[in-house]
């Protein structure tokens, strides 16, 4: 609910108000030594999540992740995430537990609101994986708007094939009151009198009880 945007720039005003209320609540405590461990732990949690996100993007070969830093290494990012988590407990263990509980709760909430796990169709995943070859982008989930990664947008949709499509009712069954009529027409250059014979012949065929499909 806090992500709802307003105005031409789609500004999340509800999120701004929530941030203001949280910041004001900590300021009104008026004890810097009390709020410092909590604030430090949340900063360290943010750094840890950023480092782990960078590590995960590198490990998954994400096409949108192209680090320009010359000496970048994904294992350094993983070590940075682990060190941030360690320092959180060194500063204040109860604040670290509180921070981790809040972060875990937010993660579970987001995962619950946006599940999108196509567990029932593994064959489709294997097929698309043969297309991407760990280079292209494959998004698995239910159909939603605003999907993608940065400027990359999905351009391929994979659907399952109906194996028993020949057994459908609309293909092979017709109403008992309907009959197919086959009329042979001579396309030679005849007079108008001959065309009247054709129409009478078609009428007699249509009314005949022995009509072949």
Describe this structure in words.
It is found in: Membrane. It is a multi-pass membrane protein. This protein is mainly α. Among the domains are: 31-63 and 70-112; 122-163 and 178-186, no CATH class. The chain has 7 helices and no strands. It has helices spanning 13-29, 32-59, 74-91, 93-113, 122-132, 169-172, 192-207. Helix 2 (32-59) runs antiparallel to helix 3 (74-91). The longest helix is centred in the N-terminal third of the chain and has 28 residues, at 32-59. The chain is extended and about 75 Å long. Residues 171-187 have low confidence and may be disordered.
| Largest β sheet strand count, sense and barrel closure | none
Mean pLDDT over the full residue set: 77
Radius of gyration: 34 Å
Assign an overall shape: extended
End-to-end C-alpha gap: 63 Å
The total count of strands amounts to 0
DSSP helix count? 7
What portion of residues belong to β-strands? under 5%
Parts with pLDDT < 50 across at least 5 consecutive residues: 171-187
Helices and strands in order:
Blueprint: H1 13-29, H2 32-59, H3 74-91, H4 93-113, H5 122-132, H6 169-172, H7 192-207
Helix pairs in contact: 2-3, 2-4, 3-4
Task: Provide keyphrases for this structure.
single chain; about 210 residues; mainly alpha; SLC12A_fam; transmembrane helix; AA-permease/SLC12A_dom; sodium:potassium:chloride symporter activity; SLC12_C
Summed up, what is this model?
With 213 residues, the protein is mainly α. Helix content is 54%, strand content 0%.
